[in-house]
């Protein structure tokens, strides 16, 4: 038996919009800790990890650890039928092959039940070790989204380098090159507008912009984004979900290939 | 070819050992491909209408080049790193099988000429496909093409299948791609089918894992090899009356072929007099493979060389070749993308699926439980109606009720 009641229903709508481009089908896991998801894209280059802690729900009942396989596009279709102020309740019975989404309007005058078929999904769970990152950049989420969008009109990959001066995003394409430097900036009116760089040592990594752009679909969830970089590890792009948890995207870097016979 | 009926046998008895995978999921993986098998497929399929195939000005067949060129580009574009393995000298035991294929081709040639005389188009196509033979020249053409494309090739000392399996065992490649099931018998840890199928067919790649095959059958590798020999392989005749299921039963019962031969009812099953099963087993267990493989390298394509070879010598369209070369170059850039698995390792998930896996789907019982679960959903959707008690009719509730109704009628059929 599973029953999760989320007063701020729009949150779930936003979460779905943030991940459905990257992943088609995924298992949602429910435990006493919360409602979570871990899934890779089909080419196993990017991974999304979502956590909505049980404390963030108005009512949270989950008798045993469960996983529910869902087609994210279908789930998004159903959630789009919920109003932005609606309270969303997610329900499922033991042994059932469906999950029910109940949408209640704020003044309780409309209640809608949507029942969706579950699917069997064989997915691999990856163990993500806690790691110390060489550089952690915190910046406004909208700013990061803008940078990724702008750069992808020029090139396919972005080099993110963090030095004492700041964080540099650069790309190169057929028409030319682009470099955007964001400096540390703590003196702002609102804390969410700050750009904060914590650097242990300089780091520079290359990533496919296609994935970065897809991560920025999570921008509506959070004012700020945190980008953690280490030369030995995939980048982590994290959007905090207020009082609930987070959505984290991991992306494997491009690898420099040593090619001796580069014919010009 | 390969092991008779092994795919079905595994599907029935070790379903977990095979899974469908998306073509794209092999991104960044090195994969060994049995070249001879692919060339054979290309000669049969690519650009064929009746007896006509693609040829150059001199009238030489170029279907294999067209196929090899296009499919390899498709692999490269998906970020896959292919390495082609060519057959060497066949082992003596296989000569018998090869002789059989030769005589079959002879028959097909005769049938073909009768069909041509009769003007029967369907038979012409059927028999002309059967006369297809991969010649040394075809192999050499493809090797030259692949070298120009910057794709590594390996010439196996003996069987390409065995060499592929050895590459995979020593972790030089991630998986072996072939249509011949004996890759598994050679012990390839991961074996892929349909990787080289045209994208238009939309057949997902089927991945087999030998470790899971053995685990599910509860066999050792030696027992699995014996099973394959009994099913029927390229190296020796099978026993009349023993097919896949019987072979599985016999190995389960007796453990190995020796033991089986001692106990089996010889009147029911006629064992060939000179049955070289031990030799066949040896070929599977210790095949002749290269001892030292140089490091595999994927390099930039030789544009001028490709132009000369394909356009000038074999009459390919200049524009198409230029475009294809662009694709290869673009793909090279893509293949430098890392995979997450090289950083994070898989762990076992602790949650149990809410939806129970349905096994077999043939028995009546799982359907029953499904029905009752549908019933509880019905009740729960009604109870939601009571919880939010108010005077207004509930469109949502009506929807839920209707939904449950239609589903029940679905399941009752």
UniProtKB/TrEMBL annotation, chain A:
<feature type="domain" description="Proliferating cell nuclear antigen PCNA N-terminal">
    <location>
        <begin position="1"/>
        <end position="125"/>
    </location>
</feature>
<comment type="similarity">
    <text>Belongs to the PCNA family.</text>
</comment>
<dbReference type="InterPro" id="IPR022649">
    <property type="entry name" value="Pr_cel_nuc_antig_C"/>
</dbReference>
<dbReference type="InterPro" id="IPR000730">
    <property type="entry name" value="Pr_cel_nuc_antig"/>
</dbReference>
<comment type="function">
    <text>This protein is an auxiliary protein of DNA polymerase delta and is involved in the control of eukaryotic DNA replication by increasing the polymerase's processivity during elongation of the leading strand.</text>
</comment>
<dbReference type="GO" id="GO:0006275">
    <property type="term" value="P:regulation of DNA replication"/>
</dbReference>
<dbReference type="GO" id="GO:0006272">
    <property type="term" value="P:leading strand elongation"/>
</dbReference>
<dbReference type="GO" id="GO:0019985">
    <property type="term" value="P:translesion synthesis"/>
</dbReference>
<dbReference type="Pfam" id="PF00705">
    <property type="entry name" value="PCNA_N"/>
</dbReference>
<protein>
    <recommendedName>
        <fullName>DNA sliding clamp PCNA</fullName>
    </recommendedName>
</protein>
<dbReference type="GO" id="GO:0043626">
    <property type="term" value="C:PCNA complex"/>
</dbReference>
<feature type="domain" description="Proliferating cell nuclear antigen PCNA C-terminal">
    <location>
        <begin position="127"/>
        <end position="254"/>
    </location>
</feature>
<keyword id="KW-0238">DNA-binding</keyword>
<dbReference type="InterPro" id="IPR022659">
    <property type="entry name" value="Pr_cel_nuc_antig_CS"/>
</dbReference>
<dbReference type="GO" id="GO:0030337">
    <property type="term" value="F:DNA polymerase processivity factor activity"/>
</dbReference>
<dbReference type="InterPro" id="IPR046938">
    <property type="entry name" value="DNA_clamp_sf"/>
</dbReference>
<keyword id="KW-0235">DNA replication</keyword>
<dbReference type="Pfam" id="PF02747">
    <property type="entry name" value="PCNA_C"/>
</dbReference>
<dbReference type="GO" id="GO:0006298">
    <property type="term" value="P:mismatch repair"/>
</dbReference>
<keyword id="KW-0539">Nucleus</keyword>
<dbReference type="GO" id="GO:0003677">
    <property type="term" value="F:DNA binding"/>
</dbReference>
<dbReference type="InterPro" id="IPR022648">
    <property type="entry name" value="Pr_cel_nuc_antig_N"/>
</dbReference>
Automatic annotation (TrEMBL), chain B:
<keyword id="KW-0234">DNA repair</keyword>
<dbReference type="GO" id="GO:0043137">
    <property type="term" value="P:DNA replication, removal of RNA primer"/>
</dbReference>
<feature type="domain" description="XPG-I">
    <location>
        <begin position="147"/>
        <end position="219"/>
    </location>
</feature>
<dbReference type="InterPro" id="IPR019974">
    <property type="entry name" value="XPG_CS"/>
</dbReference>
<dbReference type="InterPro" id="IPR023426">
    <property type="entry name" value="Flap_endonuc"/>
</dbReference>
<dbReference type="GO" id="GO:0006284">
    <property type="term" value="P:base-excision repair"/>
</dbReference>
<keyword id="KW-0255">Endonuclease</keyword>
<dbReference type="GO" id="GO:0000287">
    <property type="term" value="F:magnesium ion binding"/>
</dbReference>
<dbReference type="GO" id="GO:0008409">
    <property type="term" value="F:5'-3' exonuclease activity"/>
</dbReference>
<dbReference type="InterPro" id="IPR006085">
    <property type="entry name" value="XPG_DNA_repair_N"/>
</dbReference>
<keyword id="KW-0479">Metal-binding</keyword>
<feature type="domain" description="XPG N-terminal">
    <location>
        <begin position="1"/>
        <end position="108"/>
    </location>
</feature>
<dbReference type="InterPro" id="IPR008918">
    <property type="entry name" value="HhH2"/>
</dbReference>
<keyword id="KW-0269">Exonuclease</keyword>
<feature type="domain" description="5'-3' exonuclease">
    <location>
        <begin position="29"/>
        <end position="364"/>
    </location>
</feature>
<protein>
    <recommendedName>
        <fullName>Flap endonuclease 1</fullName>
        <ecNumber>3.1.-.-</ecNumber>
    </recommendedName>
</protein>
<comment type="similarity">
    <text>Belongs to the XPG/RAD2 endonuclease family. FEN1 subfamily.</text>
</comment>
<keyword id="KW-0227">DNA damage</keyword>
<keyword id="KW-0496">Mitochondrion</keyword>
<dbReference type="InterPro" id="IPR029060">
    <property type="entry name" value="PIN-like_dom_sf"/>
</dbReference>
<dbReference type="InterPro" id="IPR036279">
    <property type="entry name" value="5-3_exonuclease_C_sf"/>
</dbReference>
<dbReference type="GO" id="GO:0005654">
    <property type="term" value="C:nucleoplasm"/>
</dbReference>
């Amino acid at each position: 038996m599973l029953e999760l009641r989320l007063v701020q229903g729009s949150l779930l709508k936003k979460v779905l919009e943030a991940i459905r481009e990257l992943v088609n089908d995924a298992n949602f896991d429910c435990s006493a800790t919360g409602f979570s998801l871990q899934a890779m894209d089909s080419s196993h280059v990017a991974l999304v990890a979502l956590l909505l802690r049980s404390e963030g729900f108005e009512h949270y009942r989950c008798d045993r650890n469960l996983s529910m396989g869902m087609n994210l596009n279908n789930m998004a279709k159903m959630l789009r039928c919920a109003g932005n102020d609606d309270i969303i309740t997610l329900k499922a019975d033991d042994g059932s092959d469906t999950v029910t989404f109940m949408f209640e309007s704020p003044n309780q005058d409309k209640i809608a039940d949507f029942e969706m078929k579950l699917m069997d999904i064989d997915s691999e769970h990856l163990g993500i070790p806690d790691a110390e990152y060489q550089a952690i950049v915190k910046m406004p989420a909208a700013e990061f989204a803008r940078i990724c969008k702008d750069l992808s009109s020029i090139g396919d990959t972005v080099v993110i380098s963090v030095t004492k001066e700041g964080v540099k995003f650069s790309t190169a394409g057929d028409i030319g090159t682009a470099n955007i430097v964001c400096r540390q900036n703590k003196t702002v009116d609102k804390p969410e507008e700050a750009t904060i760089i914590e650097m242990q040592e300089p780091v520079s990594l290359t990533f496919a912009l296609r994935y970065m752009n897809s991560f920025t679909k999570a921008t509506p969830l959070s004012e700020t984004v945190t980008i953690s970089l280490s030369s030995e590890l995939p980048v982590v792009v994290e959007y905090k979900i207020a009082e609930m948890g987070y959505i984290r995207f991991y992306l494997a870097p491009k690898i420099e290939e040593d090619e001796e016979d580069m014919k010009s | 070819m390969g092991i008779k009926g092994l795919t079905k046998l595994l599907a029935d008895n070790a379903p977990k050992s095979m899974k469908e995978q998306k073509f794209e999921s092999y991104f960044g993986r090195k994969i060994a491909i049995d070249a001879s098998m692919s060339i054979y497929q290309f000669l049969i399929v690519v650009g064929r209408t009746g007896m006509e195939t693609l040829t150059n000005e001199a009238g030489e067949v170029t279907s294999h080049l067209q196929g090899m060129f296009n499919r390899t580009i498709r692999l490269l574009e998906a970020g896959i790193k292919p390495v082609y393995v060519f057959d060497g000298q066949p082992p003596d035991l296989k000569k018998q099988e090869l002789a059989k294929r030769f005589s079959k081709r002879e028959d097909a040639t005769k049938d073909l000429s009768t069909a041509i005389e009769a003007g029967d188009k369907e038979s012409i196509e059927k028999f002309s496909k059967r006369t297809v033979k991969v010649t040394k020249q075809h192999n050499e053409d493809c090797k030259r093409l692949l070298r120009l494309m910057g794709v590594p090739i390996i010439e196996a000392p003996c069987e390409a299948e065995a060499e592929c399996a050895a590459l995979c065992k020593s972790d030089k490649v991630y998986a072996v791609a072939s249509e011949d099931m004996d890759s598994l018998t050679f012990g390839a840890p991961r074996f892929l089918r349909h990787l080289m199928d045209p994208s238009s067919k939309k057949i997902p790649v089927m991945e087999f894992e030998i470790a899971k095959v053995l685990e599910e059958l509860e066999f050792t590798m030696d027992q699995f090899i014996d099973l394959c020999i009994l099913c029927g392989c390229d190296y020796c005749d099978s026993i009349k009356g023993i097919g896949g299921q019987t072979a599985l039963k016999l190995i389960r019962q007796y453990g190995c072929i020796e033991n089986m031969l001692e106990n089996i009812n010889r009147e029911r099953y006629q064992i060939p007099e000179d049955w070289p099963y031990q030799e066949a087993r040896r070929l599977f267990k210790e095949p002749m493979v290269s001892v030292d493989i140089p490091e595999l390298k994927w390099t930039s394509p030789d544009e001028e060389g490709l132009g000369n070879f394909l356009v000038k010598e074999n009459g390919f369209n200049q524009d198409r070749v230029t475009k294809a070369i662009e694709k290869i170059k673009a793909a090279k850039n893509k293949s430098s993308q890392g995979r997450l698995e090289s950083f994070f390792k898989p762990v076992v998930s602790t949650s149990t699926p809410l939806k129970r896996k349905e096994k077999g789907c043939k028995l009546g019982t799982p359907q029953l439980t499904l029905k009752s679960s549908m019933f509880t959903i019905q009740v729960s959707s009604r109870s939601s109606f009571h919880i939010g008690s108010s005077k207004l009719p509930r469109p949502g509730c009506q929807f839920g009720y209707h939904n449950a109704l239609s589903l029940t009628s679905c399941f009752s059929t």
